[in-house]
Amino acid sequence: MALLQPDKACEPIVVVRGLTKHFLVGRGFFRKERAWLHAVDDVSFEIARGEVLGLVGESGCGKTTTGRMLVKLTDPTAGCILIDNEDVAAIGGQGMREFRQTVQMIFQDPYESLDPRMTVFDIISEPLNVNHIGTLVNREERVAYMLSRVGITPPDMFFFRFPHELSGGQRQRVAIARALVVNPKFIVADEPTSMLDVSIRTGVMKLLAELQEDFGMSYLYITHDLAVARYLCDRIAVMYLGKIVEMAGAEEVIKNPLHPYTQALISAVPLPDPAIRRDVPNIRGGVSKPIDPPPICRFHPRCPAARSICSDRDYPDLAEVSPGHLVACHILVAR
Amino acid sequence: MRSLAQHWAIFRESRIGIAGLVVIVCFGVFGMMWPLMFRNVWDPNVYHPVVGFDPTMMHPAAPCRGHLLGTDPIGRDILAQLMFSTGREFLLGVLSAMISVVVGTFIGAMAAYYGGFTDAFFMRLADIVMLFPFVPLLVVVGSLVRLDMFSFAIILGFLEAFGGITIILKAQALQVKVRPYIDAAKVAGGDDLHIIRSHIIPNVLPLSFLYMMFNVTAAILSEATLSFFGVLNIDMSWGMMIHTAETAGYLFDYGRYWWLWLPSGLAITLFCAAFYMVGRGLDEVVNPRLRKR
Fold first, then answer.
1. Structural domain range at position A18
2. What region, left, alpha or beta, does residue A46 occupy, with left being phi > 0 and alpha being psi -120 to 50 degrees?
C-alpha cells in the first residue's frame, strides 16, 4: 500500500490552474453595458514544498488578487486551486478549520492589519483561539515562543501592549508571529516589507527567510521590488495586467530576462553606479486597465518587438524556451 | 488607538465635558440623598412625594423653612418630589440609552458586515422609524397601554435603537469592515460572529458610547413631554410636577407661583444639558478633528 501512495515530498503544495478573477465595473441601474475588469486572467503555477515563489509586477496587475484567492478571501471567477491536495473552492465546515491552519497570510500594512483594540497576546493567539487549539496555558507558551522566534524579546514584556505602542518593524514581526502560530505549511506574503522603513526592511526579510527554512514552509511572496524577490525567492513569476508573462528561477529572471516586459521592469531598477550605461527597452505608453481586453497579447500595444502575429493571434501561452524558463510571447517562442 | 488614560486626558481638556460631568455627579448625589432624608429627617406623612400633605398651612405654599422649595397645590413638598424623581430620571435615561445603544450597535454592525438584504431591511426600517414623529406616536401608545417608567424606558430604547443610531453606527462599522485587520481575522479562521463581536463592535464602541449620552437627553425630554400631557402612568417625575402645576392652573400666572414649575423645569434643562455636554466632551475624544491643536 505504501508504494501506491504518492510521494508527498515531491508533490507541489500549491497547484493553480487557469485561475481567473473578473470584477464587474461600471454597473449601473440604467446602464445595460457591463464591463469586466480582468484582474487575474487564466493564471497557472505550482509551488513546491519548501519553495518560495515570488510574484512580481507593477501596481494593479493582479498580484494581490491572486494572493487573496489563494487564502480564500476572494472567490475566483474560474479556475482551480489545490493546496495540499485540497480543492480550495470546495472547502467548508471542518475542512475550513484545517485550511486556516494550513494556509496563512502576512499583510502589507502592519499599521492596518492589527486590530488597534487588541493586545499583542490577543492578536497572536487569535488564530489559536478561533480554531480552539490548546488551553490558555498552551497558548501563552506558544505565543511567547513565537514572539521570541520573530525577535521580540522578552516576550512577556510585550504580551499586553497595544499595536500603537510598537514600532513599525515590531508590528510586522507581530503580524508574522500571528501567521506562523498555527504552524502553516503555506504562507501568502503580500508585500510584507513594502511599508517598512528601509533600515528595518532587511531585518524583516532575513527573519522571513530564516523562518521559512526552520519551519519548512512555502511562500508565495508578492512584491513589486525585484531586489527583494531576488533575495528571498527561488523562482519568480512576472505578472502584467492579470497574466503571467515570464516565470523562471530567480537568478535566471534577473540575469537573463526574455520577455520585453521583464526586461523593461529590470531596466527600471536604478543602478548605484552612474557610469554604467545599459540598454533601456523602448516601452511606449503607460499601464492601462484590463477592462474587457481583446484576447490578444496584453503587452503588445507597448511592446517594442511587436509584430503582426502579436495582434493577429490569441494570447500566447506560457511556453518553456529553456529548461525551467517559461515565457508567454509569440515572437520568443517562434524563434 | 489610545489607552483609557489618554482618552481621559483628552476628555479632561474639554471644559464642556468636565462641566457636564460635574453637573451629573451633583444630580447623582442629590438623588442619593432622597432615601436618607426620607428615612431619617423628613416625616413620611408630610414629605411623601405622592401622598404627602402638610396640614399646617395653605397650599400651594411659598418656600419657607419647613418646605425649602414650597409645596404644590395639593400640599406635597416640591424639594422631596424633585429629589425622589432624580433617581428615576437617571434610571429612565440610562436604561433607555443602554437599550438603544446595545441594540443599535449590534444591528448597525450586522447591517454593515452582511450588507445586501440585512442592510436594506434595517436601513429602510430606520427611515420609517425616523419618519414617525416620536411624541404624537408615544401619545397614542401611552393612551392605549399603561406605560410606567420601566416599560416606557424599554419602548423608547427600542424606538431609538431602530432609528438614527443604527444608521450612524452602520456608517462607522462600514469604515471598520474594510480595514485589513478584518481580512486578517478571516484568514485566522474567525467566523462572522467572531469578527462582528471581537473586531467590529469594539472599534465602533466609542461612537456608541457617545450616542448613549445624547440618547439619555432624548429619553428625559420625551418623558417630560409625555408626562406633561399626562399620558404616562407615572406617579411622580419632573414632567409630572409641571403637569400638576399646569392642570391646577398655576402655570400662567408667571412669576407668582414660580416654585411650582421652575425647580423641575430647571432640573430637566440642566440634566439634559449635562448629558449633552458630556457627549460633546466625548465627541472630542472620538472625533479628533474637533480637538484643539
1. 14-270+278-334
2. beta
CATH number at residue B244: 1.10.3720.10
Nearest-by-Cβ selection for B187 from A97, A104, A108: A104
Q: Where are the alpha helices (DSSP H) in chain A?
A: 63-70, 94-102, 120-130, 136-149, 155-158, 168-180, 198-215, 226-232, 250-255, 260-267, 308-312, 330-334
Is A178 close to B188, i.e. CB distance below 8 A? yes
pLDDT band at A3 (very low <50, low <70, confident <90, very high): very low
Chain A: closest CA distance from residue B96 (Å): 27
Report how many domains make up chain A. 1
Q: Average per-residue pLDDT in chain B?
A: 87
Residues of chain B with pLDDT below 70 are 1-3, 253-254, 288-293
Q: Tell me whether residue A263 is in a domain.
A: yes
The range of the structural domain enclosing residue B100 comes to 4-290
d(CA B241, CA A6) in angstroms, rounded, equals 86
What average pLDDT does the structure give for chain A? Answer: 86
User: How many structural domains does chain B have?
Assistant: 1
Whether B188 sits inside 8 A of A130 (CB atoms) is yes
pLDDT at residue number B290: 57
Residue A318 has pLDDT above 60, yes or no: yes
A281 pLDDT more than 80? no
Contact B2 A164 (CB under 8 A): yes
Task: Say whether residue A162 is in contact with chain B using an 8 A CB cutoff.
Answer: yes
Contact list in B for residue A109 (CB cut-off 8 A) is 180
What distance in Å separates the CA atoms of residue A14 and residue A185, rounded to the nearest whole number?
A: 10
- Residue A314 is predicted with a pLDDT of 85
**C-alpha distance from A153 to closest chain B C-alpha (Å):** 23
Find the CB nearest B184 among A103, A113, A116: A113
Contact B236, B220 (CB under 8 A): no
Give the CATH number of the domain where residue A86 resides. Answer: 3.40.50.300
Q: What is the 3-state secondary structure (H, E, C) of B28-39?
A: HHHHHHHHHHHH
Model confidence at A216: pLDDT above 50: yes
Q: Which residue of B has its CA nearest to A126?
A: B188
Q: What's residue B123's pLDDT? A: 93
Among A73, A97, A115, the residue with its CB nearest the CB of B199 is A115
B184 part of contact set with chain A, CB < 8 Å: yes
- How large is the ipTM? 0.86
Question: Least CA distance to A131: which residue of chain B?
Answer: B189
Q: Which helix (H) or strand (E) is A221 found in, with range?
A: strand A218-223
Is the CB of residue A166 less than 8 Å away from at least one CB of chain B?
Answer: no
The x, y and z cell numbers of residue B29, run together, are 448625589
